Amino acid sequence: MKTVQMTLDEGLLVAVDKAARRIGTTHSGFTRDALRLALENLQMAEFEQKHREGYRRKPVKPGEFSDWEEEQVWVE
């Protein structure tokens, strides 16, 4: 692991320290987890944008998935 220096405003640091204590970690551990989550969210947003762009370029045709409609019916 590498040590990095970050500048945080006082209110954010206090909130991070409180949250870290509440879940039993350090503010460094909390920050690492938050950064990982932010990167995952960014990647997911990029995937979703690519997905939307694909459907924009090639929209679903009427009846394209009709063969699967019966598979969606829940039997009780």
What would your notes on this structure say?
- It is a single chain.
- The chain is mainly alpha-helical and 76 residues long.
- It has two helices and no strands.
- The longest helix is centred in the middle third of the chain and has 31 residues, at 27-57.
- It is elongated and about 55 Å long.
- It starts with 9 loop residues before the first helix and ends in a 19-residue tail after the last helix.
- The model has no long low-confidence stretch (mean pLDDT 91).
Brief descriptors of the model:
76 residues; mainly alpha; 2 helices
Describe this structure in a few short sentences.
With 76 residues, this protein is mainly alpha-helical.
Give the rounded overall mean pLDDT. 91
H and E order? HH
Question: Low-confidence parts lasting 5 or more residues at pLDDT below 50?
Answer: none
Shape estimate: elongated
**How many whole angstroms does the radius of gyration measure?**
22 Å
Number of helices: 2
Largest sheet: none
Beta-strand proportion: under 5%
What is the β-strand count?
Answer: 0
Distance between the first and last residues' Cα: 54 Å
Q: Helices and strands: which structural class?
A: mainly alpha
Helical residues, percent: 55-70%
